[in-house]
Design brief:
Length: 391
């Protein structure tokens, strides 16, 4: 479990699952343990067994369940996804009855067979599930209050207006309101690049202290956030050439330029997911290239604007991991159900760099380095296990 490289927004599972001293799992911990740790570990242990072996059948059955759960939690969903959910949850249920004939089907297992009806009626689950309400309850419980209900006390004009609109509230309600406004003001202040360089360390301290608020199942659907370096990018490659090529291909009206207005970004945060460059878990990404999804690592993050003052566009300079050869691919037991267990790639990075808009990065991935000889393939080349983490 310690070898898994996970991005900062993803909550890790407890290191000692099942031990009483570590207490009960929270929702995010169950999600991490069942959708990341178990698929990786069980596939490594049982994926190479004969297909008639009961442990292999148990693994396949569990991966059908994980696949169905991941489909049901997608942020965008269509009829093809819903049909795929019905297929996997049906295979899981029928396989469960075959593998465990003395076990009873629980109400939740039965209801999961009807969950596709709700997906068709209401759409993606993040817009109607109850995690957000539980999250806000937790935030409110963590605010300092004096338990005085309904005792009115005016401190400033804004509180006066609030209490005028809601005359039944008192000191406790006022405290909650003021703390909420204070938090939102700080987030707004720290979200852009208007702060002076001297305060960057304060922003980093703030984010390290409160990053838990944007982890797990309840990532906030916030706007794009970023922090820029103040100097221009010095390049591994000529950014003018590669950016001009991208602009001519995707925005033909933009004239070529020998000096484009670019800056290097320290990081970019989109919907709570932080993308960074270098040998960091936040740099392992799945990106879209020629209608295919490819794994790679971010080398640089660049902002570009046509003129000073314009809202910048953000790009990632990425090196792709090599795909497995046709010879080694049959020995990759993870890719039998890649949505649940992931797949292997060679750990070698391509020499060429690919410029990708941040919007074309679909997700981070959980990464595990597998030294040669790889556990599940015959190659002598070091591999990397890739498990996409789509929210």
């Amino acid at each position: 479990m310690n070898k898994i490289k996970l991005p900062s927004w993803f909550n890790r599972a407890p290191k000692h699952p099942g031990e009483i001293n570590w207490g009960k799992f929270k929702a995010d911990e169950w999600k991490a343990f069942c959708t990341v740790n178990l698929p990786i570990t069980l596939t490594r242990l049982w994926g190479s067994l004969p297909h008639e072996d009961k442990k292999y059948k148990m693994l396949k059955n569990f991966l059908h369940l994980v696949t169905a759960i991941k489909i049901a939690n997608k942020h965008t969903i269509d009829e093809a996804d819903i049909s795929l959910y019905e297929k996997h949850i049906g295979l899981y249920t029928s396989g469960f009855l075959e593998l465990y004939p003395f076990a009873n089907i629980t109400p939740y297992q039965h209801l999961s067979l009807h969950f596709s009806t709700h997906l068709r009626r209401f759409g993606p689950t993040h817009s109607w599930r109850c995690f957000a309400f539980e999250r806000f309850n937790g935030i409110i419980q963590g605010l300092p209050i004096n338990n005085k209900f309904g005792e009115i006390c005016f401190l400033n004009y804004y509180v006066y207006i609030f209490l005028t609109c809601f005359p039944s509230v008192g000191e406790m309600e006022k405290s909650l309101f003021m703390h909420f406004c204070r938090i939102q003001n700080l987030r707004g202040l720290f979200s852009g690049s208007a702060l002076p360089d001297e305060l960057e360390s304060v922003v980093e301290m703030y984010e390290q202290r409160y990053q838990v608020t944007i982890q797990g199942t309840l990532l906030e659907d916030i706007a794009l956030r970023f922090r820029l370096k103040k100097e221009s990018t010095d390049g591994i490659i000529d950014l003018n050439i590669i950016l001009n090529e991208w602009l001519q291909k995707n925005s033909p009206k933009t004239p070529p330029s020998t000096r484009l207005n670019t800056l290097e970004a320290i990081y970019v945060t989109r919907h709570g997911q932080r993308f960074e460059a270098g040998d960091h878990a936040n740099s392992y990404v799945i990106f879209r290239q020629s209608r295919e999804l490819k794994p790679g690592r971010i080398v640089k993050i660049i902002s570009y604007s046509e003129s000073h003052g314009d809202h910048p566009m953000f790009f990632a300079l990425i090196r792709q991991y090599w795909d497995m050869s046709d010879t080694d691919l049959p020995h990759d037991y993870f890719c039998q159900l890649p949505q649940a267990a992931g797949y292997l790639s060679y750990r070698t990075l391509a020499r060429q760099y690919t410029l990708v808009p941040i919007s074309d990065i679909t997700s981070h991935f959980a990464a595990i380095y597998i030294d040669a000889p790889a556990i599940t393939c015959t190659t002598e080349m070091p591999c990397i296990h890739i498990l996409p983490l789509r929210i």
